Amino acid sequence: MMSMSESFEAANYLEKKKQTNLSGFLLIVCTSMITDTQVKSTADME
After folding, report:
1. In whole angstroms, how large is the CA radius of gyration of the chain?
2. What is the pTM (predicted TM-score) of this model?
3. Contact between residue 33 and residue 26 where contact means Cβ atoms under 8 Å apart
4. Planar angle of CA 35, 20, 15, nearest 5 degrees
5. Secondary structure string (H, E, C) spanning the chain
6. Who wins on pLDDT, 5 or 42?
7. Torsion angle of alpha carbons 24, 27, 31, 32, nearest 10°?
C-alpha cells in the first residue's frame, strides 16, 4: 500500500504526462488542419 504522499506524487506525474500528451496531440491536430487549409487554397488557385 502506498503512502498518501506517494500516491499523490504518482497522480501528479500521470497528470503532467497526460497534459504533455494532450498539448502534443493538439499541436499535431492544429498543424494538420492548417496544412489541409493551405493545400485546399492552393488547389483552388489552379
Report:
1. 20
2. 0.47
3. no
4. 145
5. CCCHHHHHHHHHHHHHHHHHHHHHHHHHHHHHHHHHHHHHHHHHHC
6. 5
7. 60
User: Which triple of cell numbers denotes residue 12?
Assistant: 501528479
C-alpha distance across the termini of the chain, in Å:
66
Residue 39 has pLDDT above 80, yes or no: no
- Measure the CA–CA gap between 2 and 4, rounded to whole angstroms: 7
pLDDT in tens, 2-36: 688 888 898 899 888 888 888 888 888 889 888 88
- C-alpha span between 34 and 17 (Å, rounded): 26
